[in-house]
Backbone:
């Protein structure tokens, strides 16, 4: 290392180690001396009369006296005091004239003249520019704001009335702090506020350069209050630099604060710049927050993957085998050390045995990614497929044939139960009934027409019940049984009126009467008109198909229609002031829809007061006068005519407070007008 100094030849022939030691000692002595002399310069000297006597005793026979040089230090912009003793060795001998000189300037720069009263002050305007003022009380020339050009040696000449002239010498040193401090990286790029990012294992080199300053500043590196590097590498007239070299960096160096100081005196604040060390790291680890033993298909899950140690936060990638999943979100902790990725995912049956992986990698560092894997165990409801036996022709199954079904099952975990359904009715193993169930197969022996319908197999595990596709079994049979609930009969109203029967099955219907038969697909319709009472009775219908003739015919009973029977068991209920409520039991309707009519008459005049019609024998007639007795006439009618009328008495209440009473019952016979009313 070569050290340059503004004093040429000072270190000629010295090695680099000696130069650094000498430079450090010189700078340290300089700062200590500056501190000591500042204390002396800022302390007001006492005016002791013995000083002049000591001076004359020290230099006998001399007319003039020149004192030793006094050293004064001052920072730029701060005040400076230049001392000058105005005390004469001869008592009562006042100082009449004080003149201040500066080396290099032959004329006085400041004067204090006490020869005339009042005393006058004068200063050279081109030198101090009104910044200087001589104080007689403190015997000092005070500079208000010292400037760099004020540095030099000053002489104060004091002329007394009697005593010879005294001269006092002061050397003023003005300290100029460095004007700029800059830090450069090893790429010679200026660093501000932060430096980096660096990687683990790299070496940090930072060069701090201080420009300007008189005397040359001392450049050091600090970490907080700890001195890291105090040795400057380069020193010139206008530049001092110090290069900091840190060993291979580790994670502990992240956000490390390094401060460069530049200072040339304790009189000034150091010039500093602080840098924060930024670093990038690969992730340390990645893991699933929780791994379940198994997952259920078609159930939504939130799966969390965590990664720590990466800076900046890592890039998280989810994969299912080779397929990238995108339904995830990431969050980073406040310190930025932990990154959490939450995947919203619904597994399916097709994911059984696949691998779900979470990958964490740094986007800034070429470093192998960290991958964690989850071998999936997917549970799902059994998938069942029902198939007929391989040699079975479902389109040609006749009574007496054997039928065989197979149930194919895919399940995880395996099923614990398999059941068979015929039209949603569970089948049980019954050899005597021809039902044989063996594991995943069903055998129906000697099937009959009752075996026609849809068949299913249902397999169950802990996830649920899996129902198969239906298989429709059609058994061809000689017999066709039609019950009354699938036959629609319109009863005749009178002779010579037609009756129509709709028979949905079989394909052909043969009637043993002279009628009109219409066939449409699997429906057969007969139009039959009874002409006399002898034509009523029973109709028989046989059907035929590819198997043969129906063994048991369909039977239809035809009855003649008539007028309805009279109502009976009538009663009034919930009596009130203005409403009459009546209910009866309907008689036989004559096999035709019937309608019920209620008429109310005034008993003395037989004037119709109100009437009502209903499809059921229950009435509520309102708007009547209170305290009245009415004759009620009730009858029913249908398409054949009106039935017998039934009459009885009904009442409305007299007293307003008596809103409700019990039920009364009317005992009567057909066409009877005598009623027996029971009040309960």
Residues:
């Amino acid at each position: 290392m070569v050290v340059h100094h503004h004093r040429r030849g000072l270190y000629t022939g010295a090695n680099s180690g000696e130069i650094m030691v000498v430079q450090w000692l010189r700078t340290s002595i300089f700062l200590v001396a500056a501190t000591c002399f500042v204390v002396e310069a800022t302390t007001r000297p006492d005016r002791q009369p013995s000083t002049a006597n000591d001076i004359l005793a020290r230099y006998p026979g001399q007319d003039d006296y020149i004192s030793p040089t006094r050293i004064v230090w001052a920072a730029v912009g701060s005040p400076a005091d230049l001392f000058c003793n105005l005390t004469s060795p001869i008592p009562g001998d006042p100082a009449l004239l004080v003149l201040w000189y500066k080396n290099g300037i032959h004329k006085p720069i400041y004067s204090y003249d006490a020869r005339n009263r009042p005393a006058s002050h004068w200063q050279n305007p081109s030198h101090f520019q009104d910044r200087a003022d001589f104080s007689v009380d403190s015997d000092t020339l005070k500079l208000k704001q010292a400037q760099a050009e004020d540095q030099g040696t000053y002489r104060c000449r004091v002329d007394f009335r009697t005593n010879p002239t005294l001269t006092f010498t002061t050397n003023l040193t003005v300290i100029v702090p460095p004007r700029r401090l800059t830090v450069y990286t090893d790429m010679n790029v200026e660093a501000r506020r932060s430096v980096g990012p660096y990687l683990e294992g790299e070496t940090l080199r930072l060069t701090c350069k201080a420009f300007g300053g008189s005397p040359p500043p001392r450049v050091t590196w600090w970490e907080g209050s700890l001195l890291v590097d105090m040795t400057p590498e380069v020193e010139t007239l206008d530049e001092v630099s110090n290069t900091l070299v840190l060993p291979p960096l580790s994670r502990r160096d992240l956000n490390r604060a390094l401060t460069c100081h530049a200072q040339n005196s304790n009189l000034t604040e150091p010039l500093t710049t602080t840098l924060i060390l930024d670093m990038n790291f690969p992730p340390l680890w990645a893991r699933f927050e929780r791994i379940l033993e198994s997952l259920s298909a078609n159930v939504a899950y939130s799966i969390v993957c965590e990664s720590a140690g990466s800076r900046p936060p890592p890039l998280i990638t989810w994969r299912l085998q080779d397929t990238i999943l995108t339904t995830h979100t990431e969050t980073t902790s406040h310190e930025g050390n932990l990154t959490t990725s939450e995947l919203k995912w619904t597994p399916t049956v097709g994911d059984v045995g696949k691998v779900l992986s979470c990958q964490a990698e740094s986007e800034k560092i070429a470093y192998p990614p960290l991958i964690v894997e989850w071998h999936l165990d997917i549970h799902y409801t059994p998938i069942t497929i029902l198939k007929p036996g391989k040699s079975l022709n479902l389109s040609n199954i006749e009574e007496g044939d054997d039928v065989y079904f197979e149930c194919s099952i895919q399940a995880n975990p395996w099923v614990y139960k398999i059941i068979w359904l015929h039209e949603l009715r569970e089948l049980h193993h019954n050899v005597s009934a021809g039902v044989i169930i063996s594991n995943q197969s069903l055998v129906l022996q000697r099937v009959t027409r009752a075996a026609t319908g849809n068949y299913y197999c249902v397999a169950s595990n802990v996830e649920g019940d899996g129902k198969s596709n239906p298989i429709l079994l059609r058994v061809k049979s000689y017999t066709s049984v039609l019950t009354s609930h699938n036959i629609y009969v319109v009863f005749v109203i009178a002779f010579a009126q037609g009756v129509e029967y709709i028979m949905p099955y079989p394909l052909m219907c043969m009637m043993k009467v002279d009628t009109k038969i219409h066939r449409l697909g699997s429906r057969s319709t007969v139009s039959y008109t009874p002409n006399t009472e002898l034509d009523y009775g029973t109709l028989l219908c046989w059907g035929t198909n590819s198997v043969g003739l129906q063994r048991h015919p369909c039977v239809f009973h035809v009855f003649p229609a008539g007028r309805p029977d009279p109502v009976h068991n009538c009663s009034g209920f919930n009596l009130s002031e203005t409403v009459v409520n009546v209910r009866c039991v309907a008689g036989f309707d004559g096999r035709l829809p019937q309608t019920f009519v209620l008429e109310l008459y005034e008993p003395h005049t037989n004037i119709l007061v109100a009437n009502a019609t209903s499809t059921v024998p229950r009435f509520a007639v309102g708007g009547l006068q209170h305290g009245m007795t009415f004759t009620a006439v009730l009858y029913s009618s249908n398409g054949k005519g009106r039935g017998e009328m039934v009459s009885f008495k009904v009442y409305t209440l007299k007293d307003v407070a008596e809103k409700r009473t019990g039920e009364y019952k009317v005992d009567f016979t057909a066409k009877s007008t005598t009623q027996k009313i029971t009040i309960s």
Confidence is low (pLDDT under 50) at residues 1-62, 481-513, 658-680.
